[in-house]
Amino acid sequence: MRSLSLLGSTGSIGTQTLEVVRDLNTRGQRPYRVEVLAAHSNVTLLEQQVREFRPRAAALFDPAAAQDFRDRVRDMDITVLSGLEGLCQAAAWEEADLVLNAVVGMVGLRPTLAALAAGKTVALANKETLVAGGQLVMEAARKQNLELLPVDSEHSAIFQCLQGNTRSQVKRLLLTASGGPFFGWPRERLEKVTPQQALSHPNWSMGAKVTIDSATMMNKGLEVMEARWLFGLPPQCIQVVVHRESIVHSMVEYQDNGVMAQLGTPDMRLPIQYALAYPDRLPGPVRELDLFAAGALHFAPPDLEAFPCLAIALKALEQGGLAPAAVNGANERAVEAFLKEQIGFMDIARLAEEALAACPQGDAGSLEDVLAADQWARQRTGERIGEGLSPSAWL
Predict the structure, then answer these.
(1) Is the dihedral of CA 78, 25, 208, 316 positive or negative?
(2) Per the count of CB atoms within 10 A, which of 71, 129, 275, 303 is most buried?
(3) What is the pTM for the complete model shown?
């Protein structure tokens, strides 16, 4: 039996991970004991989860929520942790073999480093960890001789296509993108997009932040940055391909121009289970792919004019240093403001671009510098939002 520490258990990836664990345990092929569950502040759902899976510990990022949770589970023999330190303790939990990091945003960086320092295998669904701190994380993994297991569907697909092949013979990574709910829309129409419209993804069920990032295509830019660190290829060897059906999850082109692709129904439980069962492939809850029902598959280049967030992310990756951390921090703050209807949809890109243009120069080789760049970008973006600028103020 393997043991799991799950960070972000009440979010979209976290709840689906527990579905997979439940299914694996029922089948008895690769049973998992859940050692730790960690969440941000959803006390009600976390209580349901701990009563079902009986972990040794639970962590809540929000201290007030942690105190509420302690009161609710006084009848249970469970250690309750809180704050960022609690997340790091959960990530380094001694009895856990695998740490699946599914928290959203930059808060996932320090727990990832804590898990690697403790010698844990990390399954990573928190892309911001590598976007902002890729150099730090990969150095920590190499120091411990550990391989990160990607959970994002695109990176899992690439990881799967690399199995049995030599990475030095890779020519290109073809990273697929659904195009989000606004594929084909002109920029003028995108100016009027509402949060409700942006939260309606055509293919995937995801959390609010990731869904907005998918709508702006910032998510794909962050995934290019993530792929650069995970697979050690320069940015010019990573190409984004819009694929509306979300059947081909990504591809690897080798030096002989042969292309390997991983296909499947658009269901996050497939890459989650691949990470949990790796290197084995086991029966699971995902329905099989019906190619006759899928019909034709379509591919198109991304529209960088209508979706400038992707271009901004690619520019930040090319610039390197602290630029990715700054763009990521600005984007997180801008998405938060957009969901609160404080800014317009296209203002997310404008704020990210401003942060990139003004970001401090420097190497991303220390945690302190990365966190400082992130905080600088958040504060600067918050100040811009606080000025009460309407969308037209940037036009």
Answers:
(1) positive
(2) 129
(3) 0.93
